[in-house]
Protein backbone atom coordinates (compact mmCIF):
# COMPACT_ATOMS: atom_id res chain seq x y z
CA UNK A 1 0.00 0.00 0.00
CA UNK A 2 1.34 3.44 -0.93
CA UNK A 3 1.76 5.73 2.06
CA UNK A 4 1.12 9.45 2.09
CA UNK A 5 3.95 11.94 2.47
CA UNK A 6 1.65 14.42 4.26
CA UNK A 7 -1.98 14.48 5.51
CA UNK A 8 -4.45 15.40 2.78
CA UNK A 9 -2.28 14.07 -0.04
CA UNK A 10 -4.20 12.29 -2.79
CA UNK A 11 -2.88 8.86 -3.70
CA UNK A 12 -3.72 6.83 -6.80
CA UNK A 13 -3.83 3.06 -7.24
CA UNK A 14 -5.24 0.29 -9.40
CA UNK A 15 -4.25 -2.43 -6.91
CA UNK A 16 -7.30 -4.42 -5.81
CA UNK A 17 -5.88 -5.34 -2.40
CA UNK A 18 -5.02 -1.72 -1.60
CA UNK A 19 -8.49 -0.51 -2.60
CA UNK A 20 -10.34 -3.25 -0.72
CA UNK A 21 -8.23 -2.74 2.41
CA UNK A 22 -8.73 1.05 2.36
CA UNK A 23 -12.51 0.69 1.92
CA UNK A 24 -12.94 -2.02 4.55
CA UNK A 25 -10.77 -0.18 7.12
CA UNK A 26 -13.38 2.58 6.92
CA UNK A 27 -16.36 0.22 7.20
CA UNK A 28 -17.28 0.62 3.52
CA UNK A 29 -18.64 -1.85 1.00
CA UNK A 30 -18.55 -1.87 -2.82
CA UNK A 31 -21.74 -0.45 -4.28
CA UNK A 32 -23.48 1.08 -7.28
CA UNK A 33 -26.46 3.44 -7.60
CA UNK A 34 -29.53 1.53 -8.85
CA UNK A 35 -30.55 2.55 -12.36
CA UNK A 36 -27.02 3.20 -13.63
CA UNK A 37 -26.52 -0.34 -14.95
CA UNK A 38 -25.85 -1.08 -18.60
CA UNK A 39 -27.77 -4.30 -19.26
CA UNK A 40 -26.23 -6.82 -16.88
CA UNK A 41 -23.10 -4.69 -16.34
CA UNK A 42 -22.62 -2.50 -13.28
CA UNK A 43 -23.11 1.22 -13.65
CA UNK A 44 -21.29 3.86 -11.59
CA UNK A 45 -18.83 2.40 -9.09
CA UNK A 46 -19.27 3.76 -5.57
CA UNK A 47 -18.41 2.87 -1.99
CA UNK A 48 -21.13 2.74 0.66
CA UNK A 49 -19.85 4.15 3.96
CA UNK A 50 -22.10 3.77 7.02
CA UNK A 51 -23.91 7.00 7.86
CA UNK A 52 -23.20 8.73 4.54
CA UNK A 53 -26.49 8.40 2.66
CA UNK A 54 -25.86 4.93 1.25
CA UNK A 55 -29.54 4.03 1.36
CA UNK A 56 -29.58 5.02 -2.32
CA UNK A 57 -26.80 2.53 -3.15
CA UNK A 58 -26.96 -1.20 -3.91
CA UNK A 59 -24.20 -3.35 -2.43
CA UNK A 60 -22.32 -5.48 -4.98
CA UNK A 61 -19.59 -8.10 -4.70
CA UNK A 62 -15.93 -7.16 -4.80
CA UNK A 63 -15.54 -9.52 -7.78
CA UNK A 64 -18.19 -7.63 -9.79
CA UNK A 65 -16.87 -4.23 -8.67
CA UNK A 66 -13.26 -5.06 -9.63
CA UNK A 67 -14.31 -6.72 -12.90
CA UNK A 68 -16.01 -3.47 -13.93
CA UNK A 69 -13.10 -1.40 -12.57
CA UNK A 70 -10.58 -3.29 -14.71
CA UNK A 71 -12.81 -3.55 -17.77
CA UNK A 72 -13.22 0.25 -17.84
CA UNK A 73 -9.50 0.91 -17.24
CA UNK A 74 -10.20 2.91 -14.07
CA UNK A 75 -8.04 4.07 -11.18
CA UNK A 76 -8.86 4.80 -7.54
CA UNK A 77 -7.85 8.18 -6.11
CA UNK A 78 -8.02 8.36 -2.32
CA UNK A 79 -6.73 10.02 0.83
CA UNK A 80 -5.51 8.26 3.96
CA UNK A 81 -5.99 11.33 6.16
CA UNK A 82 -7.54 14.79 5.96
CA UNK A 83 -5.25 17.80 6.20
CA UNK A 84 -6.16 18.05 9.90
CA UNK A 85 -4.91 14.49 10.48
CA UNK A 86 -8.19 12.54 10.90
CA UNK A 87 -9.03 9.55 8.72
CA UNK A 88 -10.40 10.52 5.31
CA UNK A 89 -13.16 8.80 3.34
CA UNK A 90 -12.35 10.84 0.23
CA UNK A 91 -12.12 8.78 -2.91
CA UNK A 92 -12.78 9.11 -6.62
CA UNK A 93 -13.01 6.47 -9.31
CA UNK A 94 -11.88 7.87 -12.64
CA UNK A 95 -10.54 6.80 -16.03
CA UNK A 96 -6.90 5.85 -15.67
CA UNK A 97 -4.44 8.66 -16.37
CA UNK A 98 -1.78 7.12 -18.63
CA UNK A 99 1.60 8.81 -18.88
CA UNK A 100 2.24 10.20 -22.34
Mean pLDDT: 90
Oligomer: single chain
What is the H/E string?
Answer: EHEEEHEE
SS-based structural class? Answer: alpha+beta
Count of helical regions: 2
Please state the overall shape, judged from the principal axes of the Cα atoms: globular
How many domains, in number, for the residues?
A: 1
Query: How would you characterize the largest beta sheet?
Result: 3 strands, antiparallel
Helix content: 10-25%
Our estimate of the beta-strand percent is 15-25%
Q: Which regions contain 5 or more consecutive residues with pLDDT less than 50? A: none
* Number of distinct beta strands: 6
Cα Rg: 14 Å
With strands numbered from the N-terminus, the spatial order across the biggest sheet is 1-5-6
**Alpha-carbon distance between the two ends:** 25 Å
Report on this structure:
It comes from Saccharopolyspora cebuensis. By secondary structure, the chain is α+β, with helices and mostly antiparallel strands. It has one domain (11-95). It has helices spanning 16-25, 62-71, and strands at 10-13, 29-32, 46-48, 58-59, 74-79, 91-95. It is globular.
